[in-house]
Amino acid sequence: MGKRAALATYDKEFSFVSPVVKYLLFLFNLIFWMISMVLMSVGIYARMMKHAEAAMACLAVDPAILLLIVGVLMFFITFCGCVGSLRENICLLQTFCIFLTIIFLLQLAAGVLGFVFSDKARNKVSEIINNAIVHYRDDIDLQNLIDFGQKEFSCCGGVTYTDWSQNMYFNCTTDNRSRERCSVPFSCCLLSKDEAVINTMCGQGMQELPYLQAGAFIHTNGCIDKLVNWIHSNLFMLGGIALGLAIPQLVGILLSQILINQIKDQIELQNYNLQHRTDPWQ
Fold it and tell me: DSSP assignment, residue 16?
């Protein structure tokens, strides 16, 4: 009787599903699920703080939209991972694994294509920057992002400072009645270290000056070349960032596949026990 009881207890308590793998995957997804909530909250708040007309005018270059898209995508994927690992649901775990694999492959393909077709990638970046210049005054978040980039890279415009003529406020045509006609944003200006207060009108009329004369007051080189040079100078750092983004994805894929296989083995064991319920000791 003691041997029979021990065997029954063993069959009842034994499980192929490792608690370590299960809760490690759950914790992994929980962390990124909370991050996705933060991204969505920031994106929603940023959208609500804008005027409706300005917000709808530049959806394609709105940083808040980017945060929302990334946040919603992360929320859905990590939700599948959290619930799937906790409930040992193969369908949700496979959904999590498939989406994570697709994202990883898309990132890998984008990196390879960007390296191989660098000229086309440069043209696409130029198109994005020019589009952002056009909508500079339409979105405060986009405006702050452009100003930050121009100050950090010490540049102005896409290819050159006269690219700001694409913006309706800075346009240099004679029929433009804007007070900022032929100007550039203050983030293009050369600022001295001892200047306590930034003169936001320092770029007034700079597009009317020749290249060399304008260079005494503003950065005349475009941001595209500066960005390309920065990328070439920081390839190892960018490679480290890409690896840092890839490792969590690979870990998530690996853990989910291990847990899926363990759950399948557990289901097979349960089915086997159901088919062999007859007591061999009788």
Answer: S
